[in-house]
């Protein structure tokens, strides 16, 4: 027993160390486009010249300009959105906690290179803690996070690492901290998911399956409070939902009070964003060719997407929750982690924007749930086709030369991801879940634990 525990600790230490090395590689990959000489505004000249051809673009470096980050303006308070749809005065297009992180990363920076470096130092601990938790929950399977291509490509592409941490931490709290009652664990997890919503929105969706898990009493209904009379913990489920809502409101209200126009501008910007060549979505590559090239057809296309996208996202959420409920009817346990993963697949598939770095959102579910490794590697290949190919495509278009093979690479990535997201949607919901903790405890951990052979 002692030997197994020691081995487990060594394995987790190796996973975290390898993650640190991957983060260093990820930083140097982006830093190829940063450094002197600079323009007067602190922008690296090489960034403008080589960001696409060298595939070293990052939103972090790009947004040094245009959001008053370079002027160290606190976000949202004095901001807004102008008649052209451009954010001004410190407003950024992300929820408030991401905006705050952007501001913190820029405090000591006077160039985009320093902003990139400081932001990398700020974000790296989130990735390392995520690696530690995934290692504890999934053993060797956590290497997919620690040394996988998504972390190299996207760790410092945008501000995704904190939001991934909140989602993983919520799962960790519910599945690993068994000594605390389920209702209490779930309320804490709901707070974490609420924080995640204030970073990049998507973890907020996971509150619904978490509430269903609490409603049904956890694994096999064995964690229903003694005060509950009947089969369902209705009060616990409501408490989970309320905890998430209160967290979101508590975080957003100060920003809304201090500068409502600037706070609201971030939502308006995302609502107005169009499905264009920069969004990497099935809508642009699949639906857009069905419309004509004239402005009226473009307007009709965007209107169609503005309706179809949210409807299909919500429909996928409802389907995932319902299929999870059916599985509860046969197994006695509501698979909230699997349902959360399926909901994320629906969002990634149908949302009008599918930025490359969103793959970081999906990787923890690929780690925690038993799914086909060939499918995982296929997804990473398609993802790399987008993460690399789209910038080569942009470079070819801006150069005025032929861009046929670059477009084919992008299309492979778009449709490869789409097909595999459909596969993962259902594969997640079928995935088994077994425990790697002591056999006397409820089996609550995701199925990749069996795959990994961890004894953590």
From TrEMBL:
Residues passing through the membrane, by range: 115-134, 163-182, 189-216, 236-263, 304-325, 331-350, 362-394, 414-432
Keyword terms, alphabetized: Membrane, Transmembrane, Transmembrane helix
InterPro entries according to UniProt: UCP010361
Protein name as catalogued: DUF2029 domain-containing protein
